[in-house]
Structures are given as C-alpha cells and as structure tokens.
Amino acid sequence: MKVSLFAVSALLPSAFALWPLPTGLSVGTTALRLGKTFDIKISIPNAPADLVAAVSRTKGFLANDKLEALVIDRGASSAKVVAAAKSLPSLTLSLVAIPAGGCKSLSSEAVAPIEDRVEGYTLTVPADGSGAVLKANSTLGLFRGLTTFSQLWYELEGSTYTLSAPVKISDAPVYPYRGFMLDTAGTSTAPFAVSDIKRTLDAMSWVKINTLHWHIVDSQSFPLVIPGYTELSAKGAYSAAAVYTPSDIKDIVTYAAARGIDVIPEIDTPGHTSVISKAFPEHIACAEATPWASFANEPPAGQLRLASEATVKFTADMLKAAAALFPGQFFSTGGDEINANCYTQDNATQASLASSNQTFLQALDTFTQASHAALRSIGKSAVVWEEMVLANPVTLANDTIVMVWISSSDVQAVADTGFRIVHSASDYFYLDCGHGGWVGDFPTGNSWCDPFKTWQHAYTFDPVANLTAAQSTLVLGGQSLLWTEQSGPENLDSTTWPRAAATAELFWSGPGGDVQAALPRLHEEVYRFRQRGVAANALQPHWCAVRPGVCDLTA
Amino acid sequence: MKVSLFAVSALLPSAFALWPLPTGLSVGTTALRLGKTFDIKISIPNAPADLVAAVSRTKGFLANDKLEALVIDRGASSAKVVAAAKSLPSLTLSLVAIPAGGCKSLSSEAVAPIEDRVEGYTLTVPADGSGAVLKANSTLGLFRGLTTFSQLWYELEGSTYTLSAPVKISDAPVYPYRGFMLDTAGTSTAPFAVSDIKRTLDAMSWVKINTLHWHIVDSQSFPLVIPGYTELSAKGAYSAAAVYTPSDIKDIVTYAAARGIDVIPEIDTPGHTSVISKAFPEHIACAEATPWASFANEPPAGQLRLASEATVKFTADMLKAAAALFPGQFFSTGGDEINANCYTQDNATQASLASSNQTFLQALDTFTQASHAALRSIGKSAVVWEEMVLANPVTLANDTIVMVWISSSDVQAVADTGFRIVHSASDYFYLDCGHGGWVGDFPTGNSWCDPFKTWQHAYTFDPVANLTAAQSTLVLGGQSLLWTEQSGPENLDSTTWPRAAATAELFWSGPGGDVQAALPRLHEEVYRFRQRGVAANALQPHWCAVRPGVCDLTA
C-alpha cells in the first residue's frame, strides 16, 4: 500500500524508525528477517574504497544495533510471525549508470559543489525472499540509501526483522544543505577532541546531515594550526595540546567526506578576532579593551584593523592558507557583530580611514573583497553571516551564501538581496539558548535567546515563510548550531541530539511534518543513537516511548 | 588577616576554591605546599573504619586532583614562591572529646535524627611548617573538614600548594538540611545504574550536601524491590534488570552514609501510583484512564483507592516494608497532585466513601494517618509535599517535614501551619525546567516551569523571605531537584552540576552571597569535579574561567 508520509506511524504495528522520512515511501505489512547469510553486495566494478567501508559499517549496525521495537512488549507478540518470516538474502548496490570516467568515490562526491551533488536513491526490499536492491545515480546516493536500509530493522530473540515488507523507497532531499554548526573556540577546559568531532560526524551521517559548519576559532581561542601562521595557535590556543593540527584537519575532513559530509570551515572576520592579538597585536584594534561591552558583544573585545593595508593582506593570506587545508567548496569569513565603537576608538584605524579617504563601510568592502578574492584564487566560494548584506552591505560574488542568524524575521530582507540563504536563525536553531546567561555578575542570569529551542519548534519552522516563489529557490537549506560558551565534551551529545535530527528531517523531507506523527520515530532514533554510542537526550519517559501517542497532550 | 566572606576571591592571587564557603574563615598570603611525606593522621583510639576510608579517599584527591590555579598562567608565575615554600608535614584529626560510649562511626552520625547531627569543625593550616589540625565534636564534622581540606590545594610542576596560608576555619552549616532529589522512575531507557547514583553521592559529598531525597518510584515504573511486595517491581519495572534490589539499596545507603549523606526514600501516595495497578489492580482507581489529562497531571493516570480499607492497609504495610530497607529517620509518603476527578469517576471509591460516610478529605486523612502510623511503628518520621498541609490538609505528627514545590510563594502559608519546611520550589530549584515540554502533540513545546533555573537564580534565593523570626526557625534547609522525564544517565552530571552546588552553598553558608564573588569559586568547583570524574557543565568559556571577573557584565 502507498501511504502518506505522516500516516505511516499510525498504520504500522510499531513506530517506523526511518529518520529523516524518505520523500517517497511505500510499505507493506509482511514480516521479513535478515537471512543468516545476509550480505551486502556492491555490483560496481572497482567500487571505491570508501563505499566498501560504508557497506562494512552498515553490516556492523545491522549486527549491533539490536534495537527492540518501541512497543510495550518490545516486539514479543510478533515472535511467531517473525519466526515464520521469509529471509532476506542480500542487498545489492548498483549505479544506474557508470560514469564515463568511472565511478567516483563517496568522499569526492560529498565535497563536490553543492549544486552538483546527487543524494537520491531508490531502495526496494521485497517480501518474497528475493534480494533487496539499492540503486542511485551516485556513490553518495548509495550511501544515503545504505543509511536508510540500516534503520529498517528491529531485533527480537536473535532475529533482525521488519514487519513492514515490502518496502519501496524513492528518496531525495528537498534541500541540498542540511547542516550542523559546531563552535570549537569557546569551550570550557579544552576544545573538543578529534574523537568528539568524529562521533558527531557519525551521528550527523545517520540523519543525512551533509555539512559540518565548523566555527573553529573565535575571540577566546585559536585552536587551528595554519601553516605559515602557526603563531596564531601557538599563542592563541588554550594550551599547546588544545589545537587542531593540519594532520587532525585531514583526519577529520577525510572521516567526514567518507560519511557524505562536507566541512565548511569558518574563521570569523573582522570581529571575533581578539585572540589574534596574542601573536599579531599590530592587526587588532581594541584588543581586550574594557569595558568589553562597549567594544564587543562578548568578551574579549578585539577586531581586525580592516582599514590597514597590511591587515587586509595578512587576513587574506591567512584565510587562504587556512582554506587550503579543507577540500570543500565553501569557506566562511563570518562578518557578524562588527562593533563600530571599537574602530571609532582605534587611532590606527581612524588614521588609515583618513589617509585613504574611506568610510568604515568602504574599508569593510575592500577588506572583504580582498579576503574573498584570495579564497576564489584557490577555487573557494564565500559564506558570510547576514550582517554582510543587511547591516553592513558589502560587495559579494553572486555565489556567496548568506546565513541568517539574528532572527528568522530577517530572512525576507536577505532574500531581497538575491543571495542564497542557509537558515540558521537563533530563534529556531540555536541549541545553546535557554541555559542561562554566561556573563558574570548577572544575578537574573537568563539567556539572551531564551527560551530553549525545542525540537518541536525547529521541526515546525517554515523555510519559505514570506518568500516569493522565486525567492524560495534561494533557500539552500538550514542547520542547527551549537555555540559552546556553556558546552563541552560533557554535554555535546545530549545538547545536540535528538534536536539536530529534527532540523535534519525538516530540510531533507521538507516542511509540513507534524510533531505528533514524528515523535514515535524520533524516539526510535534516540534509542538507536544510544545503541551506537551517542548519548542522545531523552524525549519522554520510557513508558511513553513504548506507547506511541499515549502521552500526547490530547490522548 | 580576617576577611569578609565575599571579599575573599578579590583579595587572593587566584580564586579560592572552597565550596561551600566556610562560615568562619581567615586566610593569609603565604605559600605552603604538601610535604613529600605528607600524611593524614587520626588521633582517635579505634577510629571508625569509615573515617579511615574517608581519610584514604582524601589522600587520593590530594594526589590526583591536580587542579591548576584558574588564572591565566595557571600558577606558573608563582613557581619560585611555591618552590621556596615551607612544607606541610601532616594533618591530624581529633575529636574535641571522645564520647563516653566511644567514637561513633561517620555512617551512624550521618543518619542520626537531623536535630542531633553535628557537622561543624575547625581546621588550622599553619604557614610555618608545623602540622595542620582538624578538630570536631563528631566524626561527621571531621569528614566535613576533610572535604574542605581537600579543596585548599592547587597543582604546579609536581607541587601541591596553596598561596593562602595560614588558613583558619571555624565552620558549621547554617541549615541542617542540604539536599538533592533524584527521580529514578521516569527516566528514558532504564533507571540510573547504581554506579550513576554512587557517582552522584560522591559529588554531593564534595559540596557537603547531606541528604539524597530519592523519589524511587512513580506512575511510569516501580524499580524498587520490596520484600513481600516483589510483584510491584516484577510487573512494574521497565525490565527485570531495571530494579534496585534490597542488596542494591543496602549498597547505596551504606555508600551514602560513609559520605555523610542520609537517604530519604519516597514512595509517592496516593497519586503517582498508576504502575501499582500492574500487580495490584484492585488498589488503583482510574488506572491508565483516558484522556489522561482529566485524571492526572501527567500520564499514566492512576491513584491508590484511599477510601478502601484494604488499600489503606496494603499501602501502610507496603510503605513499612519499604522503609525498613533504609536506615534514616525520614520517609516521604508524597501526597502531591491528587486528582479529584479520578476518585469522582471511580465507582469503588465512591462506594467506599458512601458506606463509611466519609468525604474525600476525611478518607485522605485516615489513609495518611494509617501510613504514617506504620512508619512511626518502626521509628520513622514522615515527609510530605505541600498539598498535605495546604490543598488537602490532613492530620500530621508535629515532626513531619513539609516540602514546598509548587511555588516559593507557598512557603509563607506552609509556615503558618507550623510544620518544618524544606525548600524545593519549582521556581528556584527544579533542575529539569526549561528543556521543553515532554508531552506529545505539543508543537510550541515549552516547559511548564520555564525558564531554565540558573545557578544564579537559586543562589540568590532568600530562605526566610516573608517569614517571621519564629517561622524562620521552621526552615530546615533546601534542595535541588531532578525530575527525569527528559533526563537519564546521558545528562545526569551536566544537568545537575554545578547548579546543585550553588544551592548547597546557599544552605550551608547561608543566604546573602553574591554571584559575582561566587563565580570564580564555582568555576574551580567545576574543574575539580571534572578531575574527579563528574562531567559538570561549563559556566563560561575557559578564557573567562582563568580571568576571574573579566567576563562580568560590567567589567
């Protein structure tokens, strides 16, 4: 039977654990189990090694997830049906057509220009004991299909089964950009270990998030080792060990790409750069000036001397050297929260502006164009925060991506500028909001972006609200964001998951999902995450999790 | 020099890591380090084994904390001073007077009646190389002093040092009750493991919290194995393994007592008892009735048939059997959120009320008196939630403790009843608030007790607001509370700490502390917790943590 997306969970004997929900899905009601000799075959000559590795990981999930159905009896009442079920002998992967130049690796497809990525696939799991078939036009699509396949199964008394065969899926993302932003500069004690980031990349891939927007450095610390600019991290990291070396970066981007994830690094400029003053004081205005609140939105103050020719060149060269560490198309130069008073009070900047006869905005334009030209010289496109087109509009290449963060109410104004948009609004997608303010001497102590952003709130966001049809095409997608003034390894998993998964489904499956239908599936995702070693946060008491719908407000 | 409590952190070369702040404290500015042969001696004949064990743990902390000073250079600029410092040869523990019957164990003193507990101590750490002295009138007081001693030290290049010798402390708690409430019934997946509870007990002891208020069971699950009533957990636990056996309970209460912590178990009655219907359906009205919101404040509905003689006896006997597992003076019978409609709709209850010619409130009175008499028969006193004296006032013994949870604005009304009070108000002390609502089909999704309760908010609570001087003596103290509909092992540490520590200081050191002075010390506590294996949450970026005051709103 063909069922509508949002009726699926109501029709099945247990909640249906696919997340994000495929955009085309039909399921049956026949039991099927993995055969004892079940195998995943790749019917592609000289299959790329990263696809082979992904198949191997998928087999591991099938063997180790051991997720019992989230119903009261955990599936026990289906024992006879499962025992009598036909066995699935195999899953066979193939490409619809082998490209002339041969099959590309998953990793190369993951970091290809965003408009060239093909993530769709078709997956057929027959109920009659014949083999399952996964087809796609790309290795990346096959990887997405493998991810879906791994979510079809429950465990009962040694059998790995589904009650929903036959399954026919024709799936592709509604939006090409589904991201997660991680700040590694503001954390307490130490930045996240490479293992923390890898675990997060794994979790991201399970819900088909395809972009890590990595806000690597900020005012507080500079943990990135950039060849030719190693003083930045030597003097600006929290400690000598608290850095990401070029070797770490290679390790991380390789790991990410093999999981279908592109990494967009960010070095925020010209604001949020106080720490650069430790190594290059000549390039920073108002470094650690007090009272900080007069010079910056958060301590410590300090901004690149954007009107200085030397600083413009330093910044462009440094960004280029940093960007060269990453394989992807995009690099974010930031551009948020530029403080005017910092430059007004900085004699050097005032002298530079006067001698060049430039306004602040003209200087920012020159500064930004130089940075972006340097990136373009090595094939990179720029990403910026919304101020670069609204508060401080500068000249930007047409392929620039603009991230809206201050408020979702700014989306329309950004769309009016004609640039492509990634939804990152604090009023929907900031995972750090609602845990109290972190500045000191603040007795009431509430968060600037209260309240906490629930998964339900993000899930019901409308990506094209108030946009014309033409403007809607500018929306590339969206992301959850974790700023880490109050986060670190101790709460990374529980703060991020499952909320970031809700946003991932919004931008893969498209808007219009309702929280009532989604909750049972999201429970399954939480339980599966835990089985795979990611400490996702509880959505409800276990009593509710095994009784889909029973804890609804209206039940 | 003698300094005021709240000026300490401003005067010292680094923040001063005592938490809670001793009520009498004088510090110097001389460096001192632990000698290479430093030892802790117990000058008490036949010292109790649990005190000997506490000394051993303290030595472990001194060796393993390795907490670097939270200043920019992590103490490096003090290297010469530390290298030249005198060595502390020893800490000697003694009792001011050995009781006639011999020295009591720490564990027995921890669970003694609350009015008999003596937690004060004096601690002198001379700067001249002579030995440190810890004295108290009780083994429990010595343990508190050991805890303080372990917080005096930083690590630098292999030296364990302070820059604040001589230290003279004369300390005792302002309030006798400093608690933490943990719910082990509503958690996702499984209740907390014994190891999770033990880790929490350790952390509690580090900040001199002396009571675990253990909300063991609730509507959703019954993980407590009660001798004679094993069907309750056999049919009501999430799984056969998801239980606390009598052996687990003994393990936990023994562990707690050895750390100066009494355990107050709670079996909430007559509401919040839906799960009892699995084993004893005859005792539960409106079990899992729908719509649940008409029968209970949270799903599933179900309340003990308080008007049934058989149920009254069952409840009293069961509570008595449960209470016998615990060594302490108090047992909580709950009494919150009784739903009138549940009883109105229950034919059995209506028939019982009619035949006995009782009102609901009269029946509740009979029910409660029977339960409390059963507890009293084995030497226990009762704890109840505020409804038992406000919404549904029943007959209670004078020694009953009332916990205010609905709102701090109810404290005055409870004080008017003359019962002793433990502050537990949701608007200050609920650690679970502000993470979104957990009921399903609730798109806006905000928490009923928004916003998140920041440590600053709890820390600035006034325990005697609006009370007369006489009423103020009714306040035994207060506690943080963690209800776990959205919590589990994955976020226990980061949700609880350091916020529960802020509340612990409020009730040990007394009100009036200010958040600006407290923040640097609380940072130290967070860093020390992490060194000891508790994943306390970050308060600020590390950049701020090593620059006390610099990230203040007004800095």
Automatic annotation (TrEMBL), chains A, B:
GO terms for molecular function: beta-N-acetylhexosaminidase activity. The keyword Amino-acid biosynthesis does not apply. One of its GO terms (biological process) is carbohydrate metabolic process. SUPFAM superfamilies: (Trans)glycosidases (SSF51445), beta-N-acetylhexosaminidase-like domain (SSF55545). Residues 1-17 form the signal peptide. It catalyses: Hydrolysis of terminal non-reducing N-acetyl-D-hexosamine residues in N-acetyl-beta-D-hexosaminides. It is an enzyme of class 3 (hydrolase). The keyword Glycoprotein applies. Residues 175-510 form the Glycoside hydrolase family 20 catalytic domain. Residues 18-152 form the Beta-hexosaminidase eukaryotic type N-terminal domain. Keywords: Glycoprotein, Glycosidase, Hydrolase, Signal. This is Beta-hexosaminidase.
